Fold this protein.
Amino acid sequence: MGSSHELPGRGTVRQTLRRRILLTPDHAIYLPGGKTISGSTSRDPLNTGDVQYLRAGLLMGKITSGGKYAPSIMGVLTTAYDKDSSTGASGVIQVSAATATEMVRRTGATGTFRILGPPTANATTATETFAATAINVTTGVVSISGSFLAADYVAGSFIQPNDGSQTPLGLLDDGDPLKVTDVDEANVDVQLSRFLIGGVLDASQVINWPSDTSLQNWVRAVLNGGVVDLNMTTAEQPARGPFIFDDRY
């Protein structure tokens, strides 16, 4: 390649920091042989400006068709959904522009998605599928087929794919982000050689980690193969392995 023709002088400093999801490498469990990440269905919408780089702490699930892996959460509701309100009855939900963009990119403006969350703060989670009829990538307004959802959902409820990968089976490990495009920004599948399926986690570094306790319990339980029951005490919740979350102590 040709040499730089820039004039001498100081440029703008650019920094990058590795995310650290593991509090300790001890007891970390990796899936032998790793897995393959689907480049066409994988982005990190919260990694502003570099969504093609998947960061440590991203929850990953298995796509039913083909068995490749992709992110389990595309984004969250930015405002609560009330099915009985005028907005809810009109069949509209609100997400961020970044989430709306990823919904269109991955599934299409008229695709089928899932929503998961409680009707009120810290209540029992519910989930359902919905078909979008239009998605505005500027405002984040998503129009729903069939006028309205069956349940209410709090702000922060998860917007998920509906291809099997909505069930997280592990996370991306510490270290540099994984790029899922080539030099021409075309999608490429990449090897997930260190698929984290157990360890002691810094919960705050899990991407899309919720503030709602019922959603937190859902993430803990599904990663550990358990069942969430909000009538359990904290000690009884299925969150003690193979993944241990530091915020429980």
In short: The chain has one domain: 29-248. Helices lie at 86-89, 97-106, 213-223. The radius of gyration is 19 Å. The chain has three helices and 16 strands.
